[in-house]
Design a protein that fits this description.
By secondary structure, this protein is an alpha/beta fold. The protein has helices spanning 13-24, 39-49, 58-62, 79-88, 103-116, 130-141, 169-172, 176-191, 306-309, 313-324, 332-351, and strands at 4-9, 29-35, 53-55, 69-72, 92-95, 120-122, 147-155, 195-203, 208-209, 212-213, 219-226, 231-237, 250-257, 260-265, 271-276, 283-286, 355-356. The protein has two domains: 4-125 and 326-330, 3-Layer(aba) Sandwich (Rossmann fold), CATH 3.40.50; 126-301 and 338-356, Dihydrodipicolinate Reductase, domain 2 (2-Layer Sandwich). Helices cover 33% and strands 25% of the residues. It has a nine-stranded mixed beta sheet with strand order 16-15-14-13-7-12-11-8-17. The longest helix has 20 residues, at 332-351. It is globular. The chain binds nicotinamide-adenine-dinucleotide. Nicotinamide-adenine-dinucleotide binds next to helix 1.
């Protein structure tokens, strides 16, 4: 397969920030169609890209013979229906996270994608931070030893501003849990393995945003046990006042094992902190240059702001997997596994009880 012809469904924030600049770096990808239900947003994207096939109906785009693959970047409640239509049309699909509103939907998407034999990918963008990929490599190499503890902390200051669909349960599913913690649950799966049971709490602190009700969590915490016996503590907040709202605010992961400890911070994309068991404490280790870009990515890591540009490797991975006829990393199965943990967290918070996850 030479050039992959792509359509983007949903031309809002994340499409402008990640998908369009990422696609511009991949010569083997050609953006051929755009879809958004908001005519103004669609026109802005058309003017910006020069793409001539535009529609406000995803069904119209999905059935086109001149589209090989689709990026879904719409609000969460639309993901499952659009993805299932894309899969039924036999096209490859990259879907924004969280891929669905609940695990049943996510599992149906993963199973349908696997049956159809198409490439399926979940946009867990922070897996593309060079330091995260290097950390995964070091852990697989054995530098951590038996994992003891996983700890993640995402602290932002979103204040009481209106969040649009993100503040409405039936449109977003969950608040901070799906928005931010889903990425860190995926880190936990990637670095430690599956979670076997958890207890969680969520909190709505701002009940009205922009004069509209906000019925979703601003804060979430999970106490987890992993199948391999490790323990986990995951916390995420939109209301860590004064910490700023961006990827420059705190995004911290610490992992302790029998052989040592590592600290990953998204803002420090080219380094980790590492301490050996019995040693003097944590010291900085640089991420080798070969990890600064995703394998095969044409991106020049010396160009642009590295805290922005690592995101562009995500769409490269999607296109490269399609062309190489191999599974994408991370795929819908990873998206569904995260959704299962999210469902358990919602259930646990509602019941005020520990919840077991199936093996
Ligand atoms: N991977 C990441 O790091 C990351 C970051 C931000 C957002 N996201 C995810 O991306 C998705 C979109 O978020 P956003 O911030 O871009 O939202 P947004 O509101 O800025 O954009 C969504 C767009 O989808 C359009 N839309 C809604 N329903 C549609 C439909 N049925 N068909 C076609 N278009 C439709 C809207 O008009 C809007 O323009 C969400 O799932 C979000 O969780 C992921």
């Amino acid at each position: 397969m030479s050039v992959i012809r792509l359509a983007i469904i949903g031309c809002g924030g994340i499409t402008l920030q990640n998908h369009l600049p990422g696609l511009a770096l991949v010569p083997e990808a050609r953006l051929v169609a755009l879809c958004d239900t908001n005519a103004e947003v669609l026109e802005r994207a058309r003017a910006q890209t020069g793409v001539t096939i535009v529609s406000t109906s995803f069904e119209e785009i999905v059935r086109r013979d001149d589209v090989d693959a689709v990026i879904i970047a719409t609000p969460n409640f639309t993901h499952a229906a659009i993805a299932l239509a894309v899969i039924a049309a036999g096209k490859h699909v990259l879907c924004e996270k969280p891929i669905a509103l609940n695990h049943a939907e996510a599992r149906a998407m993963a199973e349908a994608a696997a049956r159809a034999g198409i490439c399926h990918m979940t946009a867990f963008t922070y897996r593309f931070v060079p330091a995260m990929r290097y950390l995964g490599h070091l852990i697989r190499r054995g530098d951590l030893g038996q994992p003891y503890h996983y700890r993640s902390c995402r602290l932002q200051d979103w204040g009481a501003r209106p969040l649009g669909w993100r503040q409405v349960k039936k449109l977003a599913g969950t608040g901070e849990l799906g928005d931010m913690l889903s990425h860190r649950i995926n880190f936990a799966h990637h670095l430690v393995g599956p979670i076997s049971r958890l207890v969680a709490n969520t909190k709505i602190l701002v009940h009205e945003r922009g004069g509209q009700p906000s019925d979703l969590d601003d804060w979430v915490a999970i106490l987890a046990e992993f199948a391999n016996g490790a323990s986990g503590v995951l916390e995420s907040s939109k209301l860590a006042s004064g910490r700023n709202e961006s990827w420059r605010s705190l995004d911290y992961v610490e992992i302790n094992g029998a052989e040592g400890s590592f600290v990953f911070i998204t803002g420090q994309w080219d380094q980790l902190q590492y301490g050996r068991v019995g040693g003097a404490g944590l010291a900085t280790i640089p991420v080798p240059r070969e990890f600064w870009t995703w394998p095969g990515s044409p991106r020049n890591p010396d160009e642009g702001d590295p805290l922005v540009t690592f995101r562009y490797d995500q769409v490269f991975e999607f296109i490269d997997a399609i062309r190489s006829r191999r599974p994408c990393v991370p795929d819908f199965h990873e998206g569904a596994a995260v959704q299962q943990v999210m469902d358990a967290a919602v259930q646990s918070a509602a019941l005020r009880q520990w919840v077991d996850l199936p093996a």
